[in-house]
Design brief:
Chain lengths: 470, 246
């Protein structure tokens, strides 16, 4: 095998500079005129008689990285076979390593929530591509200008590909500080495992402490099934209750209580006022009584971690946005939007609804809510919105209400949907009229520009006409 | 190179025609028939003649246990299979018997081995239903890729030296990767009698450059085949199972 040194060339990639790296591979900045983005070459250490997991990790990463796309992963460039010089060439992503920030923890809660939202957004994009990372940790996250970028897919799992790592031995695969309880038990297929790791990372960032330390044995890693970490506010009272609630819900051992979707974590981190702060703060397995109860159940560890979140995820969209026009009160169209919303929500028992109505303003600079009459208009609309959604009988942790002030209702709906990774939009459409055909309707614009599915609700023409004044 | 691999056609004309049309669209470099041209289905003459034409045009074909049973008048099979073999033998002419009798038990091409059942004693028609059987099959050959059929259920086994092969159920129409590190045993699903719960006909498309194999699923008019089974006096279950893919 050829010696790796600056100036050497592998398959047309010229090695420029060696970067700091871990024990599995050497990393090089590289040049190749065939690619128009900065390049990084990853060359695994394949010593004869060396650790077989290095070669398996290389194989898994090559398999998965070349199937991924989007701003939250490095772009795949090329790879070299094991017969010659094995390597993976990918985009070099400029930014700040989260490991650096973790080293300076504790960080201010607002900053932690902002970073957490960036990571959740990257995870949502990854999970949509049917991949679970399974080794999420600060060293594998870069905060770039375009958002969080996830690195190192050596332990990752693609739902439609064989898991060539999963059946090799019974030692849990992951990093002791962040590994999820179900991974400790050998399960490697649940996106919720990444959300557990995200909870551990946010815990560490906001408190400056690792929730479980770095146990070196399987028994040590299994402790997290039975012993909940100290709630963050026990370490620092200035951490907001809502942020603690989000972190602890990420770290629930029982997956029926954990977030099932990265999009939901993202939404909670971006909208603190919608987070339900439970009276009982600690995860449900905390405290002396929890420990005793768990000891009694110790015979069945699989039962502790519950069913995979994936079974729920397939049911339907996690976050549904219902956009309803209440400018003229709750009319027949609003009622039909409600019916359709109920049908979409029914697809999944833990789906969550964002109700949106738009207060149209004439000029952007004007802030109507600032004066007293504006505030009253806003409040009246909020009351109307809550009244509209009441027949759905959703518990408060599954619904939120937003009266948005905007010049363009369609833009307001689209911005909210994109910002919160909404999975399905329900919007009403008025029956056709000359003016609407000329100007374009809200629903038309939403359908044209939404990044998710949209249900357009329209009353049958006959019924609508009957409502018109003679 | 791209290779289309068809197994277990079982005298099912409708499935065979639909699959050949799908194969034609994909224009592979080579066509391989993995045996069991006959048995169970109502159109043995059509399928054998079509297969002979394809072989004439460069396709390769190996022998399956049902082909063998027709040629050798074997009766050591399940009741339905035995009845169908007798029914088939009555309908084939000399030239059909000759074609089937000349088929090889296995065939090697570069790093690929084609065999109907298992490379472990091909004439014993062993089923590969688990990792242990896959391991024995792989250890009977040094080919990097072994392709077989016989179970009617698509599967891929990934093998590393010294470790039990890893089983994978490939999804329909989703390319499954082939590893540069490992040897592979690919169990191709059935064209003419799928048993994995999906009644659509199945064939494998191998792409050696991309190192991928895809189980392509092709829906066909199984109602018509079932009707022919019924009309020809073959056991009713042989028509019924085509509708449910079991």
């Amino acid at each position: 095998m050829q010696r790796l040194e600056a100036g050497a060339s592998i398959d047309g990639f010229e090695l420029v500079e060696r970067l700091q790296s871990g024990g599995m591979a050497s990393l090089w900045r590289a040049k190749n005129p065939k690619f128009d983005f900065p390049l990084l070459l990853k060359v695994p250490f394949l010593d004869p008689g060396g650790d077989v997991s290095v070669i398996l990790g290389f194989e898994a990463e090559e398999l998965i990285l070349k199937r991924l796309s989007g701003p939250h992963v490095p772009r795949f460039a090329a790879s070299g076979g094991l017969a010659d010089v094995p390597y993976i060439a990918m985009e070099f992503v400029a930014g700040v390593s989260l490991a650096e920030m973790a080293g300076r923890a504790p960080q201010p809660p607002e900053e932690v929530a902002r970073i957490g939202a960036e990571i959740a957004k990257a995870l949502a994009a990854l999970h949509r591509q049917k991949v679970v990372h399974l080794d999420l940790k600060p060293e594998n996250i870069i905060l770039a200008e375009r958002g969080a970028v996830l690195l190192d897919f050596g332990l990752a799992r693609h739902a439609e590909l064989p898991d060539l790592l999963g059946e090799e031995g019974s030692v849990p695969m992951g990093t002791a500080a962040y590994i999820s309880p179900e991974q400790v038990l050998g399960e490697r297929s649940d996106p919720a495992s990444d959300l557990f790791a995200l909870g551990c990372i946010l815990y560490q960032l906001v408190t400056g402490e690792e929730p479980f330390g770095r146990p070196g044995t399987v028994a040590g890693m299994k402790r997290r099934l039975y012993h909940a970490p100290k709630p963050p506010r026990d370490i620092d009272k200035s951490i907001p209750r809502w942020l603690e609630a989000v972190i602890l819900r990420c770290m629930e051992v029982d997956r029926s209580k954990r977030y099932a979707e990265a999009a939901h974590v993202l939404s909670d981190l971006r909208n603190p006022d919608q987070v339900v702060v439970a009276r009982q703060r600690a995860p449900s397995n905390a405290g002396a009584w929890g420990t005793i109860r768990n000891l009694l159940r110790r015979t069945d560890e699989k039962a502790l971690v519950g069913k995979p979140a994936g079974t729920r995820v397939r049911g339907g969209p996690p976050i549904v946005l219902a956009a309803v026009d209440l400018a003229n009160g709750s009319d027949a169209l609003a009622a039909e939007v409600l019916n359709e919303t109920a049908r979409v929500l029914a697809a999944r028992e833990d789906s969550w609804l964002a109700c949106i109505t738009v207060l149209k303003t004439e000029i952007i600079a004007d802030t109507p809510a600032a004066d007293e009459s504006g505030r009253l208009t806003y409040l009246k609309r909020l009351v109307a919105l809550k009244d509209w959604a009441r027949p759905l009988h959703l518990p408060e942790d599954r619904i939120s209400y937003h009266v948005l002030e905007a010049v363009s209702p369609a833009d307001a709906i689209l911005n909210y949907a994109e910002h919160n990774d909404v999975g399905h939009i329900v919007v009403g459409a008025r029956s056709s009229s000359a003016i609407r055909r000329h100007l374009g309707s809200v629903s038309t614009k939403v359908v044209a520009r939404a990044l998710c599915s949209v249900s357009v609700v329209r009353l049958k023409a006959v019924e609508e006409q009957r409502r018109l004044p003679p | 190179m791209r290779i289309a691999i068809l197994s277990d056609i079982h005298a099912n004309r409708e499935a065979f025609d639909a699959v050949l049309e799908a194969v034609h669209e994909r224009a592979p470099d080579q066509l391989v028939l993995l045996g069991d041209l006959v048995g169970y289905g109502p159109d043995p003459v059509y399928v054998v003649e079509k297969a002979a034409d394809l072989v004439e045009d460069g396709a390769v074909c190996v022998m399956g246990n049902h082909d063998d049973a027709v040629v050798a008048s074997r009766t050591d099979m399940t009741e339905n299979a035995r009845v169908a073999i007798e029914w088939t033998a009555e309908r084939l002419a000399r030239e059909h018997f000759d074609f089937l009798a000349r088929l090889p038990l296995s065939l090697r091409s570069e790093d690929r081995l084609y065999v109907h059942a298992s490379a472990e004693r091909p004439e014993k028609w062993l089923y590969i239903r688990d990792a242990a059987a896959a391991e024995r099959c792989l250890s009977s050959s040094d080919a990097r890729f072994i392709f077989c059929g016989h179970t009617h259920i698509p599967a891929i086994y990934y093998a590393l030296p010294g470790a039990r092969p890893i089983h994978f159920s490939p999804l329909g129409n989703v390319a499954a990767p082939l590893s540069a590190l490992r040897r592979h045993l690919v169990v191709v699903g059935a064209v003419g009698q799928p048993r994995d719960g999906n009644p659509a006909a199945c064939f494998a498309l191998l792409d050696t450059e991309r190192r991928e194999v895809t189980m392509v699923r092709v829906p066909y008019d199984h109602e018509e085949t079932a009707r022919k089974v019924q009309a020809s006096g073959l056991p009713a279950w042989l028509g019924m199972r085509l509708k449910i893919g079991r």
